[in-house]
Design brief:
Number of strands: 0
Largest sheet: none
Helix content: 40-55%
Strand content: under 5%
Order of helices and strands: HHHHHHHHHHHHHHHHHHH
Distance between the termini: 30 Å
Shape: elongated
Length: about 300
């Protein structure tokens, strides 16, 4: 993880206390280049953190070598993309991440979830937030502490529990979620490649077709668990068997005469590699679709 450096120490580009040239002089492009230049001193970066141009401040906010004195004021910047850049920066201190996880803008809060500098204290703050999406991002974390996983098992949002079910590595959490009354949570568990054979056997007998179909599409099952699904009462499940690359060919062959013509055709026409296999999505952090509220000028000097 990047470390925030203190400017009281001698800078490799100049002695401690040496002031850089006035950073506010010149046009925005020149100041932007200065903010992006690896040779720019820490004292200059602190000055540039107060630049009137959001583009310059964003450039400072993205630097992994930015000193704490530059990043700290940027956590309260009026431009949300500046704050978001600080939230992503692995050099950002835990205290500043705790401040940003409570930011008024959702994109800033969500960016914190993807910061590799997050520790248990930040994750605890995420678990306590009213932001359902932020709790969902926490549920997808590989570094989730067992006590936080236990808390999320009882989360009020089925979506959060579903995301936990799809990503957890904890067999005990999986067992608890297997009994969740909401089908979408069990469907999330069915997509989890880390379930045990016992979990998969139970999911193969789930009363909801959506869960059984998700299981067939996502993970390789023992043949003993697959055979009943070839004759499943739900055409949705049999279609999943017919189109899953994880199903052995001899079992798929049994569906070529299925009473549902769509299932039979899918089994007959199946070609390995032709279908897109479902995958467990990575944490949804870091990129966003441009929308009316996210649109910005293409001018980098803005």
């Amino acid at each position: 993880m990047g470390k925030q450096q203190d400017v009281d120490r001698p800078d490799r580009h100049g002695g401690a206390g040496a002031r850089p040239p006035a950073t506010m002089d010149g046009d925005v492009d020149a100041r932007l280049r200065l903010a992006q230049d690896p040779g720019t001193t820490h004292l200059a970066l602190i000055d540039l953190a107060a630049d009137p141009s959001p583009a310059v401040r964003r450039a400072v906010a993205t630097r992994a070598d930015a000193p704490a004195q530059a990043l700290r004021p940027l956590t309260r910047d009026r431009d949300r993309e500046v704050r978001e850049a600080v939230a992503r920066n692995p050099a950002t201190s835990i205290a500043n991440l705790l401040r940003l996880v409570r930011d008024a803008d959702r994109w800033v809060r969500w960016a914190v979830a993807g910061n590799p500098a997050c520790d248990a204290s930040v994750r605890r703050a995420m678990a306590q937030t009213a932001d359902k999406e932020l709790r969902g991002l926490l549920a997808e974390s590989r570094d989730l502490e067992p006590e936080l996983a236990v808390r999320l098992v009882d989360d009020v949002s089925p979506e959060v529990r579903e995301r936990l079910a799809a990503h957890t590595h904890d067999p005990d959490v999986m067992t608890t979620l297997l009994a969740d009354r909401t089908a979408r949570v069990r469907r999330g568990l069915a997509r989890n490649p880390r379930t045990t054979a016992e979990h998969r056997r139970a999911l193969a007998g789930d009363p909801v077709p959506d869960v059984r179909a998700a299981l067939v599409s996502a993970v390789a099952l023992d043949e003993a668990d697959l055979r009943p699904l070839v004759e499943d009462r739900s055409a949705q499940v049999r279609m999943a068997v017919a189109t899953s690359e994880l199903v052995p060919a001899h079992l798929r062959q049994a569906l070529t005469d299925d009473p549902d013509e769509l299932v039979a055709a899918a089994a007959r026409e199946f070609r390995p590699g032709a279908a897109t296999s479902p995958v467990v999505r990575a944490p949804r952090v870091g990129h966003r679709t441009a929308g009316p509220d996210r649109a910005r000028s293409s001018d980098p000097r803005r």
